[in-house]
Amino acid sequence: MTADARHQVIRNALVLRPGAQQAEPLDILIEGDTIRELGPHGMAVPDGATVVDGARRLIHPGLINAHTHGHGALAKAMGDRWSLELLLAAGPWISGNRSLEDKYLSAALNAAEMVLKGCTACYDLFMEVPAPSLEGMQAIARAYGDVGMRATIAPMVADMSLYQAIPGLYDALPSTLQDAVDKMRPQPYAATLKDVAVFLKKPGVQSDRLKLALAPTIPLHCSDDFLCACRDCARGHGIGLHSHVAESKIQALAAVTRYKRTITAHIDALGLLGPQFTVAHGIWLDDDDMRRLADHGASVAHNPGSNMRLGNGIADMRGLLKAGVNVAIGTDGSNSADNQNMYEATRLASFASKVRGPDLMRWITTPEAMHAATEGGARALGFAGQIGRIEPGYKADLVFVDLDHINWLPHTRTVNQLVHVEDGTAVRRVMIGGRVVAQDGRLLTVDLASLGRQAEAARERLSAANEPMRLLAEKLQDAVGTFCIGMAREPYTVDRYGSRVQ
Ligand SMILES: [Zn+2]
Fold first, then answer.
1. Residue 278 Cα, ligand 1 centroid: separation in angstroms?
2. Is the per-residue pLDDT at 337 higher than 70?
3. Does residue 345 register a pLDDT over 70?
4. What's the CA-to-centroid distance between 333 and ligand 1, angstroms?
5. pTM of model > 0.70
6. 281: left (phi over 0), alpha (psi -120 to 50) or beta
7. If you measure from the C-alpha of residue 206 to the centroid of ligand 1, how many angstroms do you get, rounded to a whole number?
8. From ligand 1's centre to the CA of 416, what distance in Å?
9. pLDDT at position 502, please?
10. CB–CB of 24/14 below 8 Å?
């Protein structure tokens, strides 16, 4: 009997089916990259199918990270007490002077961490300083291909700097710093979108493993003309749009000054919202904003860990779900949330809902958190109906968890345990499109040790090259920090902080 390269069957595992709270004993037949059949242990399969032993393994759908930044990996842990605005002020220091190899390396490291921690697909908003380049975008796509991870990748674009985006901030800077930040203004948007358009038109870039999208970084950092150009570009190419909307209270307040309405109302009026639109964070959304997002079928990528880390507050996930918004979960970049652990992000989505108040009915349940981390993410990434469920017809993006690991001794309620106990340490195998990408904590696709050596060399070279930018960032921290803390004391229609502003 010859081995059948097309078919493999996973036998004797416990499998988490969509909507179930408890895993069931099932075998999984995979043909190529797709799940073909689920059946009782010992079910009949085509002759010669490769048999994979799943005994003492729980198999759950690969987690889907709906918001990360590939460029963040080389800047992990570089900051501590950073608000979002201080992180943005530090951007030229922590992300500047990257070579093409650095850009590839950072995306590959980021993808490697996600895969090793049970995540099989992501929405990556990657940044190139000063603007996206054709080679850079190709390098990011190559990184995902090499790691073997599914991704929707979106170059970040803007035509205004932080200092132009927040009314009053530029004027609050001493003149020497004004001169310095004047040099940071992004190039006109037509030039920025030129390379993006060339990349989008390249044949063979998009596949069932890689999709492209566009990320107008933060609406306030884009002129209205630019936002409309992004809208037309996305519509013309049938791709997604992803933007950091109402992430900080500073942004929410700045919008009232600049737009005389909320950010969401503004981008709605410009025609950006639609099922292809993903809001990152969405902490400072009010009821009307949530209704608008729901009406347009948009998604929100909820990043509870990053939201706490940057002091932006706690998003109202229950409010979003109640309004009918598709909610997905993200880690955010390692430059702001410092790791790429989707188990942790999912756990925090549950926990964050529980510190918002005593009404249990507003708390997020573990099945809701799990749904957001799988199917919610699939929809945000533009992969709805293809990933996020273990079901015939879906891609075989599967995570094998070791039921003999301490996290599972004893195994009681599967979904509670996945969301509240598992932290990635019991992951034994990660399969993406039927291909084993990680096994027993090792990547089978790229040489992590070699990437690590390159990362150490890059860190050394970049910290020397970016030293002037570090010194500038240090000077900006005081001025930007003082201005933003003062601004954050102003009242706003919703309050998402953990306590009253002091
Ligand atoms: Zn982000």
1. 12
2. yes
3. yes
4. 6
5. yes
6. left
7. 23
8. 27
9. 61
10. yes
Cα separation, 143 vs 105, in Å, equals: 7
What distance in angstroms lies between residue 302's CA and the mean position of ligand 1's atoms? 10
With beta carbons less than 8 A apart as the criterion, state whether 388 and 413 touch.
no
For 214, residues 6+ apart whose C-beta sits below 8 A from its C-beta are: 154, 155, 157, 196, 230, 233, 234, 239, 240, 241, 242
Which structure tokens are listed for 414? 């599967």
Instruction: Kindly report, residue by residue over 239-249, the tens digit of the pLDDT.
Output: 999 999 999 99
Distance 243 CA to ligand 1 centre (A): 8
The pLDDT tens digits for 280-316 are: 999 999 999 999 999 999 999 999 999 999 999 999 9
| Ligand 1: centre distance to CA 280 (Å) | 7
Instruction: Quote the CA–CA distance of 63 and 430 in Å, as a whole number.
Output: 10
- Token output for 23: 């895993």
> In 10 A of CB 80, how many CB atoms?
7
> What separation in Å is there between the alpha carbon of 191 and the centre of ligand 1?
23
CA distance 74 to 458: 8
Distances (CA, A) of 369 to 315, 350, 353, 421, 498: 14, 6, 10, 13, 21
Residues 6+ apart with CB under 8 A from 11: 27, 41, 42, 51, 52, 53, 54, 55
